[in-house]
Specification:
Layout: H1 4-26, H2 31-49, H3 54-65, H4 72-77, E1 83-92, E2 103-112, H5 116-120, H6 128-135, E3 139-144, H7 146-159, H8 162-172, E4 179-183, E5 188-194, H9 198-211, E6 217-221, H10 224-229, H11 233-248, E7 273-277, H12 290-295, H13 298-310, E8 322-324, H14 326-333, H15 346-363
Parallel strand pairs: 3-5, 3-6, 6-7, 7-8
Antiparallel strand pairs: 1-2, 4-5
Helix pairs in contact: 1-2, 7-8, 7-15, 9-11, 11-13, 14-15
């Protein structure tokens, strides 16, 4: 039994040589016409044989599929959350002769994955001077619930010395309140806005647009309060869609996000760097009230997580906001990194801050040592 290639070759020979023989007989007096006809038939045979030779087909396909716009920066921005953890126990000595009084603590060490494409992105933990260079002269706004406040704490810990951090902690963690600070030596202003519901975030976006004042870096995120006090994922989805529209309106030009052109009055306004602070993994058994354990169970959490994706507010789903993946960071750090199943150790938010900073380096096309966005 003949295979596909053999049948193809046989058919090609018939198609090629029979007409050529007939042409040679009838057109022997006109050599130019003869060879023109032969060339045409040869090309036709080549097209006929191409499907029978995988190497040829693969080559054509590979040429068609080459993306001349493949951008290393775009691929790295999608990998910036690829963090791995090493949580290991250590003995804390009680400094007495009886070792039975010793306790066990845990070292929580994180870094970016060293596998595959992530390694090629050269992500790095930035030192204080590097962060000051990166954020020099910028206005940073972080808005949300207690998760956002913890992110602010980690960011300021990178910028301020221990003494000054101790001086501001009381004001920073004043219950359900805003906070602002100016770091004079680098000209950076940081605003924390207490905004536990998505509608609070939407109102903040409206305020930016009305005042025509836009931060350089905007980090927003909310969901835990809605989950506890409203407990309706469909309502959360609608609120996120409204927020998405408000965020997109901050962008001077955003055809890929569904606007038709420049936002009125925003000529010369550059788009802020936009981030969404994700919700943490909730460890139900560790939540500190019965109401939380009932309303913030795994099923509800996943419904809210699905609503976030359905809203298309995240860049990975066609939206304007780059995710700071607290869910992944907290899940991989694990139960050793939380006391109440909801708020995690500072190491988790420290990792989120460095993810944000590396994303800023990529988005602003900066290298360490540059002084402005």
């Amino acid at each position: 039994m003949f295979g596909g290639i053999q049948i193809g070759v046989l058919a090609a020979c018939v198609v090629l040589f029979v007409p050529m023989g007939m042409a040679g007989y009838h057109l022997s007096r006109n050599k130019m016409l003869f060879f023109s006809g032969a060339l045409f038939i040869t090309l036709a045979v080549g097209v006929h044989l191409t499907p029978y030779f995988p190497s040829v087909s693969d080559f054509v396909t590979s040429v068609q599929s080459v993306n001349v716009f493949d951008n290393r920066e775009d691929s790295c921005i999608n990998l910036v959350n690829e963090v791995v953890w090493n949580v290991k126990p250590r003995i804390i000595s009680s400094n007495v002769s009886d070792s039975s009084n010793d306790s066990v603590g845990y070292d929580k060490i994180w870094d970016w994955s060293k596998n595959g494409k992530v390694k090629g992105c050269d992500f790095e933990k930035l030192g204080r001077e590097d962060v000051k260079d990166l954020l020099n002269g910028s206005w940073v706004v972080v808005a949300g619930d207690s998760q956002a406040r913890l992110l602010v704490q980690s960011l300021l810990s990178l910028l301020l010395d221990e003494k000054r951090m101790g001086m501001i902690m009381g004001d920073l963690f004043k219950r359900h309140s805003d906070y602002e600070i100016v770091v004079d030596e680098m000209g950076m202003k940081l605003d924390f806005v207490w905004a536990p519901y998505v509608v609070n975030l939407t109102n903040l976006m409206v305020g930016f647009k009305q005042n025509r004042t836009y931060p350089d870096v905007l980090v927003i995120g909310a969901g835990l309060w809605h989950m506890l006090h409203v407990n309706n994922a469909s309502d959360y989805d609608i609120a996120l869609e409204n927020l998405r529209s408000s965020v997109v309106s901050l962008l001077p030009f955003s055809p890929e996000l569904g606007t038709d052109g420049p936002v009125t009055g925003s000529v010369s306004v550059r788009s802020p760097h936009l981030f969404w602070l994700g919700m943490p993994t909730l460890i139900n058994a560790m939540l500190n009230t019965e109401e939380k354990r009932e309303k913030m169970n795994d099923k509800i959490w996943h419904a809210y997580y699905g609503a976030l994706h359905n809203s298309r507010i995240l860049r990975s789903y066609g939206g304007p906001l780059l995710l700071l993946d607290i869910q992944s960071l907290s899940w991989n750090c694990g139960p050793r990194c939380t006391n109440d199943g909801m708020h995690y150790d500072g190491t988790v938010y420290e990792a989120a801050v460095h993810i944000l900073l590396n994303a800023l380096l990529i988005e602003s096309h900066q290298k360490l040592g540059s002084t402005e966005f």
